[in-house]
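Quick note —
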Amino acid sequence: MGSHPHTPPLPVPTTSAGREGLAALLARPARAVIALDFDGTLADIVPDPEQARAHPGAVEALAALAPKVASIAVITGRPAGVAVRHGGFAGVAGLDHLVVLGHYGAERWDAVSGTVHAPAPHPGVAAVRAELPGVLDRFDSWRGTWTEEKGQALAVHTRRAADPQAAFDALRGPLGELAARHGLIVEPGRLVLELRPPGMDKGVALTEYLRETRAESVLYAGDDLGDLAAYAAVEKLRTEGPDGTPGLLICSGSAEVPELAERADLLVPGPGAVVEFLSALAQSL
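Predicted structure written out below.
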């Protein structure tokens, strides 16, 4: 571990498991995977997801950190190519060790090749796409909501509705029924309901990637309900085998999703603080 005159101190995790995870990462960074959600973790939440961009300094921090660890994985519900574009990850010196696992791991972009590997869309997505406007039309509270086209999924956002939480609550049941009719599931998030194929979640994606890279420790940072599956995966990996895989769970912004904050080893107030942590971590290695 090196030290720099202006290195901010790394915050200390509040749990013993988190402290063990950070210690393992610092001891053998070349065997560690840094896994990060995108929206709300590396990018600030904005009313229009098409306007979301990586927080200033995020790419610089990742490029400083990536050469020192086994890999950095951005795990997102967005299409992999969209996250790459909005993150500004392509063609950045130092980011050879970056992968983006999009659609909860169904798609993958590798910085080394610059290409996306994706499966054929689930047939239920096209059926839901056709029926969704009719379902939304039955609810007065849907006004101001809008649908995001994600290729392998569809997301209904209520953040712009007159009463965002009321619209979210009113639509959750009907959208769940629509999804179920076509073999999809609904993934709730921060004022968004995503209709997507079952089988992949951030926990599955993270576990498979850690096995592939033979990681000996993991850091995972997220901010929303979709990150709970990754949290559960890290918690399980900690207990597997004779010693388990040490892990550090970071929650980015704790106000909206207490379910995540309660299980985190370290709370930070949002993407800016995540970037500061990653920068400090890079300088500590």
